[in-house]
Amino acid sequence: MMADKKTRVFLDASVFIAAAGSKSGGSSLVSKICSGLHFSAVVSRKILLEAQINIRKKLPSEALLRFYKELDRLNPEVIEPLTKENLNNYNNIISTKDRHVLAGAIESKAGFLITLDRKHFKTEAIRKANLPVKIMTPGEFLEFVVEKYS
């Protein structure tokens, strides 16, 4: 008998940075959930690089080690780089610097995009765009998981 297909969860760099900074916070818990029975993590190389650069810049050295260990445990699917055409589809919805995150989540057919970036992802333009991905903060995602699976 085949197992149920896991729901793909696209993780933004902000989630990795927060998880590296606190192993007991919501972002760390999201990471653990994404390597469980119901969910699998999806990222892009650009997001992993952004997370690594920011962790090095802003957090103590043990945070970088925690990031690498977490990445090894999580073993996320890393999507192919997006084309300029893919990215341009989202020009009217989100700022240029965040397009790759939104496009990555949608193009990878993720059910969820988890981000701490409320300023750019919790906007009227995104709400009105009727996107095929649910955009949530780690806290909102954790509430969803508790409601659905408890």
Could you write a compact summary of the structure shown?
The protein has 150 residues and is an alpha/beta fold. It has helices at 13-21, 26-33, 45-58, 61-74, 84-88, 99-107, 118-121, 124-128, 138-149; strands at 7-11, 39-44, 77-79, 112-114, 134-136.
Characterise the protein shown here.
With 150 residues, this protein is of the alpha/beta class. It has one domain (7-144): 5'-nuclease (Rossmann fold). It is built from nine helices and five strands. The chain has a five-stranded parallel β-sheet with strand order 3-2-1-4-5. The longest helix has 14 residues, at 45-58. The radius of gyration is 15 Å and the shape is globular. The chain starts with 6 loop residues before the first strand and ends with a helix.
Features:
13% strand
What shape does the CA trace take? Answer: globular
Q: Strand count, sense and closure of the main sheet?
A: 5 strands, parallel
Kindly identify the CATH topology.
Rossmann fold
Tell me the name of the CATH homologous superfamily.
5'-nuclease
| CATH class category label | Alpha Beta
Give the strand tally.
5
Fraction of residues in H or I helices: 40-55%
How many domains in all?
1
Number of helices: 9
pLDDT below 50 for ≥5 consecutive residues: which ranges?
none
Instruction: Provide the structure class.
Output: alpha/beta
Summarize model confidence as the mean pLDDT.
Answer: 94
| Rg over alpha carbons | 15 Å
Instruction: Please tell me the CATH architecture by its name.
Output: 3-Layer(aba) Sandwich
Strand order, sheet with most strands: 3-2-1-4-5
- Elements, N to C (H/E): EHHEHHEHHEHHEH
- Beta-strand content bin: 5-15%
**Separation of termini?**
24 Å
